[in-house]
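Shall we go through a protein fold together, starting from nothing but its sequence? Please make up or recall a protein chain and show it to me in full. Go ahead whenever you are ready, and we will take it from there.
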Amino acid sequence: MSNNSLIEVQDVEYRYETRESEAAPAVLRGVSLTVQAGEMVCLMGPSGSGKTTLLNLMGLLEKPQVGDIRFIGQSVKGLSESALETHRLRDLGFIFQAFFLIPTLSVLDNTTYFLGPLGMGAREAKERATEVLEKVGLQDHLSKYPRELSGGQRQRVAVARAVAKKPKVILADEPTANLDRATAEKIVSVFQELRDNEGTSFVFSTHDQDLLGYAQSVYRLQDGKVVR
């Protein structure tokens, strides 16, 4: 494994459990790839090809049944749930298609949600969150709640929450799917700034061909396999 590798996926196979007597078909079949520090990696492929499942595995939300994933040099199979949780909090940022914003918290409070557990004081957390929200164009919506936002605005809050942590890796599932072109370019600019200033890596699944130009590595998945 390279000294610059943050995530290394090694011949991973994954299938979801089923109540049926027959084994479920594998969602991922022998997938291997590497994410380097400061690299933007793009996962392409049709719906059902395994992109979201692969993101969940790389984000330590699931463990592979076959093969291995090494995160910062450690096999995930040997990590306790406590260690996995620490990595998810400290080292990983997530941008889900479903957003997973907390409906009872304002835009600002959603964005600062993970900063306190990371040891950041309330004032610093507010300043950091406000700065990021301004960059994604939500400076006039800090006190609003998710129900008061459009889908694209909720998407930007999810982006801001992940970026505010300054994690080692941000995993994004269709990060520009609900955005117009100008806003999508603004989000990518925020990603690039974080990569250049903090060395953050990005792994994003997308159908957006315009995002390909920003990626250093592109992996195309089809039927659970890398076919690039």
